[in-house]
Design brief:
Blueprint lengths: L5 E12 L2 E13 L2 E6 L5 H7 L5 E5 L5 E5 L1 E7 L14 H15 L3 H17 L2 E7 L4 H14 L2 E5 L1 E2 L13 H17 L6 E7 L7 H13 L3 E6 L3 H10 L6 H7 L7 E5 L5 H9 L3 E4 L1 H6 L7 H6 L4 E3 L11 H19 L8 H15 L17 E5 L21 H12 L5 E6 L2 E5 L1
Parallel strand pairs: 1-4, 1-5, 6-7, 7-8, 8-10, 9-10, 10-11, 11-12, 12-13, 13-14
Antiparallel strand pairs: 1-2, 2-3, 5-15, 15-16, 16-17
Helix pairs in contact: 3-4, 4-5, 8-9, 12-13
The structure holds zinc ion.
Length: 451
């Protein structure tokens, strides 16, 4: 295939639109140089669509005779790459003792470049195999290992935001930034390295104060200023656990709230992504909304560490953009599909307490949050998150009849093109599917996973 060639994807396509999914049993997408050049929501054939768009040279990926559909790649808005080996290991801990018992010892071991190479190669490979085409990663405090994570994302073809974790107080001596000056120097080094890769469409730096308790006011103010001057993304944690919230209040008594603590230090911008946000008050939500920040909802983590229940409907009603995060390894699964399923279930728990059916999230909504919602939270929705002309082609081919598939399909559920059969298959996929059903993954039009 020459660089100027177009590839036409023809078959069933499912596409997130505002808070819903379009189910298109017979559609066509044209991709050239990684970008979507046409999208026919109803198509007769690949060649008919190509002719309509005056395209003579093209390759075809024809899924129309299979049990497959195309879906946009998942966006993981919150994942700790170095914690991947601990997936599933959290016992009965809650946030603060989980950090000291399991997390800091493991993260500190990534100082060794060999361990970093092994862990980061595997987490990127595994998340890609699960259909994650974009991830917002926390690395560790270590500069060289963090650079390695960026290199690995680039070489395996995953789009990523990569952040060096900054923490200069209230963490063990064996694992922290030695001083404010050291933290600034390390942050600059990582940001400049990622910028020197010169692939702003693929790998972006993201300023990453771990969370307010582990950062001095001095470093947070510097990071806010540095991020704003250089137009960088910012990610951190907020309001995940009640003990954590009380601690922030104690450490920053002059700030009105947890959200205000970040605001006072210049860290709430429209490129800020705040993870968890379970207990934000209405006043804090007003501030987050006013500052145009995005949120990351991490339902598996919040259930595993018994942190609390995120009130998704309240956030949707406020039009604060949010997506889903695996939060590996507070969350045990590297899969956004599993995270979406659990997000749906957590919303049912919220509804059981509120006795309000409106609090339940639908299949369409959680799959929208898993893709376009994440892109909106990261302010990358003009480029990724759904299939639209001008956006990058980040996609996964879902097939419910692969080898060893956990899903059974019955004769009467096919063909996909009839009635609402496609919609039913998507519902079965959400609840019963896993990475075995993700048969091919493309990022920027390049095939990065084939099974
Ligand atoms: Zn986290």
């Amino acid at each position: 295939m020459t660089a100027s060639n177009t590839t036409v994807f023809f078959g069933a396509i499912v596409n997130p639109a505002r808070r819903a999914l379009e189910y298109l049993p017979q559609a066509a997408i044209g991709v050239r140089e990684g970008e979507i050049v046409f999208f026919d929501r109803h198509a007769e054939s690949a060649s008919a669509s190509a002719a309509t768009h005056n395209i003579k040279n093209f390759d075809t990926v024809d899924l129309s005779k299979t049990t497959s559909f195309l879906f946009p790649g998942f966006i993981d808005t919150h994942i700790h790459a170095p914690q991947y080996p601990n997936s599933g290991i959290f016992g009965k801990t809650t946030l603060l003792d989980w950090l000291t018992t399991y997390t800091f010892p493991l993260e500190s071991s990534l100082k060794d470049p060999k361990i970093a190479q092994d862990v980061y190669s595997r987490v990127v490979k595994k998340t890609l195999a699960n259909g994650t085409t974009t991830a917002a990663y926390y690395a560790t405090v270590h500069v060289e290992s963090t650079k390695k994570l960026a290199d690995i994302c680039l070489s395996q073809g995953q789009r990523a935001l990569v952040g060096r974790v900054c923490m200069d107080q209230n963490t063990p001596d064996y694992y922290r930034d030695a001083s404010v000056e050291e933290a600034k120097k390390s942050d600059r080094e990582v940001v400049e390295y990622i910028q020197s890769l010169n692939k702003p469409d693929r790998i972006l730096p993201i300023i990453t104060p771990r969370f307010a308790p582990s950062c001095t006011g001095e470093i947070m103010s510097w990071q806010g200023d540095y991020a704003q001057k250089n137009n960088l993304h910012i990610q951190t944690h907020i309001s995940e656990n009640k003990g954590e919230i009380a601690w922030v209040k104690e450490l920053y008594p002059a700030c009105k709230s947890y959200a205000d603590t970040y605001h006072q230090h210049g860290l709430l911008t429209e490129k800020t992504l705040l993870a968890h946000a379970i207990y934000l008050t209405d006043e804090e939500l007003n501030l987050v909304e006013q500052q145009k920040c995005g949120l990351s909802h991490c339902p598996i983590s919040n259930s595993s560490l018994t942190s609390g229940e995120f009130h998704a409907r309240k956030i949707l009603d406020r039009n604060i953009p949010f997506g889903l995060g695996t939060d590996v390894s507070g969350g045990y699964a590297p899969s956004i599909l599993s995270t979406a399923r659990h997000g749906l279930l957590v919303s049912r728990h919220v509804a059981m307490k509120s006795e309000n059916d409106a609090d339940k999230l639908s299949v369409d909504e959680v799959l929208y949050l898993a893709t376009l919602g994440g892109a909106e939270a990261l302010k990358l929705d003009s480029k990724i998150g759904s299939f639209e002309v001008g956006k990058k082609f980040d996609a996964q081919q879902i097939d419910l009849e692969t080898n060893g598939s956990p899903v059974d399909i019955f004769d009467w559920e096919l063909p996909i093109s009839e009635g609402n059969k496609l919609e039913n298959l998507v519902h079965k996929w959400l609840f019963n599917g896993d990475d075995r059903n993700t048969s091919t993954v493309w990022v920027n039009g390049d095939k990065v996973v084939t099974k």
